[in-house]
Amino acid sequence: MQLWLLVGIGGFIGAIFRYLTSGWIQGSIATFPIGTLGVNAAGSFLIGFVMYLSEYSGVFSEETQVMLTLGVLGSFTTMSTFSYESFRLLEQHELPLFGANLLLTVLLALLAVYAGKTCAGYLGAAA
């Protein structure tokens, strides 16, 4: 199947999962964008897991890897939403929440990629 079609199908799936997951995580918390933070951390873990598991053990074909990373996870993670929500916090003079959102998003995303890599390493070594 054409890679661009796989990316499009994956993007459709990822966008739906992003909408559902972000809303579920956000719940009734109105001020801090925890739904976006949660989606970015989960997406970072998953991209680390998929990419490193592929590298360590070749579990995924090129087509599957492209669909999952560029398609599903590309539309699942929400850096543009993160940027907008951060800017809105800054506009609303919510400096502590603005700083917390920036710091937590970057740190959790990097830690999640590392956690995905570590999990993939254990599975790759076991395979």
Short description:
By secondary structure, this protein is an all-alpha fold. The chain has five helices and no strands. Helix 2 packs antiparallel against helix 3 (about 60-75), helix 2 packs parallel to helix 5 and helix 4 packs antiparallel against helix 5 (about 95-125).
Instruction: Give the SSE string.
Output: HHHHH
Number of strand segments: 0
Q: Given the helix and strand composition, which structural class is it?
A: mainly alpha
Total number of domains: 1
Question: Mean pLDDT, as a whole number?
Answer: 92
Largest sheet: none
Runs in which pLDDT lies below 50 for 5 or more consecutive residues are none
Nearest-angstrom radius of gyration?
16 Å
Oligomer: single chain
Fraction of residues in helix: over 70%
Q: What overall geometry do the principal axes of the alpha carbons give?
A: globular
How far is the N terminus from the C terminus? 28 Å
Report the total helices: 5
- Beta-strand percentage range: under 5%
What's the arrangement of secondary structure elements?
Elements (H helix, E strand, L loop, with lengths): L2 H24 L7 H24 L4 H15 L2 H13 L3 H32 L1
Helix pairs in contact: 1-2, 1-3, 2-3, 2-5, 4-5
